[in-house]
Amino acid sequence: MLKRPSLHNGYLWVCRTAWSVAQAQRLEQELGNIRCELRVWDVPEPGDPSAGQIVELWVHPDDDARACDLVSRISADHQPPSTRDSDPFSAN
C-alpha cells in the first residue's frame, strides 16, 4: 500500500486539483469543523482571471474520510450530466 504524503503536523494529503471558482468556494464553505489546511491559487485564463483555481487540501487523519467524501461529492456535482452518469467501462 502506498503511503500518502503528510505535512509536518501529520495532516494527510487529500487532493491538489484544478477546480472552478464555484467549486473552490463550496469546498471552503462546507469544510466546517474538519481540521484542515486549504491552499488555493488562482489560475489565470486569457480574458477571464477568475476562470479557475488550484485547490490543495490537507486534513487531520481523524477527518480524512469526511474530507475525501466532500471532495468526491463536489467533484461529482460539477461534472457535465453526460459524463456524470455514464459508465466508463460500458461498450460504446
Your description of this structure?
- The chain is of the alpha+beta class.
- It has helices at residues 21-30, 64-77, 81-84; strands at 12-19, 36-45, 48-59.
- Helix 1 (21-30) runs antiparallel to helix 2.
- The longest helix has 14 residues, at 64-77.
- It is globular, with a radius of gyration of 15 Å.
Give the spatial strand order of the biggest sheet. Answer: 1-3-2
Largest sheet: 3 strands, antiparallel
Structural class: alpha+beta
Number of helices: 3
Low-confidence stretches: 86-92
Helix content: 25-40%
SSE string: EHEEHH
Output the radius of gyration: 15 Å
Task: Average the pLDDT over all residues and give the rounded result.
Answer: 84
What is the CA–CA distance across the termini? 33 Å
Total number of β-strand segments? 3
**What percentage of amino acids are in beta strands?**
25-35%
> What form results from the Cα inertia axes?
globular
